[in-house]
Amino acid sequence: MDNFVINGGHELFGEVNISGAKNAAVAIIPAAILADDLVRIENIPQISDVQLIIEILDRMGAEIKLVNKNTIEIDTSNINYQSVPYELTSHFRASYYLIGAMLGRFYQAEVAMPGGCNFGVRPIDQHIKGFEMLGADIDIVDGMVCAKAEKLMGTSIYMDVVSVGATINIMLAAVKSRGLTIIENAAKEPHIVDLANFLNSMGADVRGAGTDVIKIRGVEKMHGCTYSIIPDQIEAGTYMVAAAACGGDVLIKNVIPKHLESISAKLEEAGAEVIEYDDAVRVTRFKSLNKCNVKTMPHPGFPTDMQPQMAVLLSVANGTSILSESVWDNRFQYVGQLLRMGADIQVDGKVAVIVGKPKLTGVTVKATDLRAGAAMIIAGLVAEGTTVVEDIAYVDRGYEDVVEKLALLGADIKRVEVKEEKTVQSVG
Ligand code: EPU
Hints:
Helix content is 31%, strand content 25%. The chain has 428 residues and is of the alpha+beta class. A hairpin with a 5-residue loop joins strand 11 (205-207) and strand 12. The radius of gyration is 21 Å and the shape is globular. The two termini are 20 Å apart. The structure holds uridine-diphosphate-2(N-acetylglucosaminyl) butyric acid (EPU).
C-alpha cells in the first residue's frame, strides 16, 4: 500500500477538473442490469469502487467493454443472478444496489450483507421494508440477503428515515413492477436525480426525483441507452474546501454549481469568496478564516460527506465553531488524527467543538475512511512541515487522480510506495 507525503503551507492556484460522481456511478452501473441490451455510460470516475462494481458485473456474466478511460459499454443479457461474488460484494456498501436491480430483472437476488465505512450501525431495514411492500420475501441467511418475489406490485412506501441507499434500491426494484409505486420521504441527493434520468433514458417512467415524493410507473421492458454521469458533488466540495483552507485562487471546472450551494454558503461565511459560473465555481481566499457553525443534513443541506474536510478548515479559522453531524451516529473517528496535528477539537456524541488554532503541524496520520482521508490530505496541505497519510486505499476508492489534480494547483504532494501490505475493508 502507498502513502501520501505532503509538504504543506502552499496556497493553491489554477484549475481542476471534477470527475463523474462516485455515488451516482455505483448505482447507475448495476442499474444497467435492468436493460435488455447494450448500455453505454460516460463520465465514469476511475476509482477503485467503480472498478469493483464493474468487476462484480463481469464475474456475473455481463459483457463489459472499456471504450476509453471514462466510458464503458455493458451488455447484461447473459447475466446470472446466482453468481454474485461474495468475496467482492461483502465489503462493498453499494453492492446492495444489486438486490434492487436483480429483483427488478429476475424477481430474485442473493447478495452478501453490505459492509461500508464504519460510521456506527448501518441498518438496511428501509431497503427491506420497501422490497417487502413491493411483494418480495426477504431472508437473511448466513450473511446473505435472499430476496424472492412471484411478482412485484407498485404500492405507496413511506420511508421512516431519509435514506439515499433505500430510495435508490426501491427505485431499482420498482421500475419494472406492475402499476404505480410512490416513495414518500424520499432522499433528494443529486445522484438520486441522476439515477432517475438514467432509468428514464432506458425507458422507465420515474417522476419527482429530487423532491421528497418519487412516482414510478412500472414498465415491462427497458432498453439500452447512452448516458453521461453527473459531476461529483463531494469531489468538487473537497477541492473547494482545500482552496479555502490553503488560501489562493482555484477554478473548479465541470461542476453543477446548484449542487454546491450549501458548501459555497459555508465557505463564504468562513471568509472565502465563491463565484458561480455555468459549469464551474471559483474559490478565492486571501484574508484570514472565520469560525462558523455547520450542521450536516440530507440534501439540500450541508453534506455529511463534507464534514471531515470542513473540520480541517475550521481547525485553522479564528474563533470557536460548532460542527454537528445529523446523518451518521459515529462520524468523528478521524478527529484523533487531527488532534495529533495540533487541532483543538472536543467531540461530544454527534457534536464537535472546534477551537481554531493559528497552525497545524505535519505528522504521520491515517485515513480512517474515504472522506476522513480527504480531510487528512487537506490538513497536510495546510500544515507546517511534512504530513504522511497512511491507509490511502480509502482515498483511491473515491478520488480520481488526486495527487495529479492537487499537484497542478501547486500542492507539494507525492504518492510513495511502502513495502508492508495492508487491506482496506470498505467504503461508501
Ligand atoms: N438508515 C436507516 N435504515 C436504512 C438505511 C439508512 O436507519 O435502511 C439510516 C443510516 O443509519 C443513516 C441514515 O439513515 O443514519 C442515512 O443513511 P443512507 O441510507 O442515506 O446512507 P447510504 O445510502 O448508506 C450514502 C452514501 C454515503 C453518504 C450517505 C448520506 C453511497 C454509496 N453512499 O450512504 O457516502 O454518507 O448516503 O448522504 O451512496 C461516501 O461517499 O463517503 C459515503 C459514505
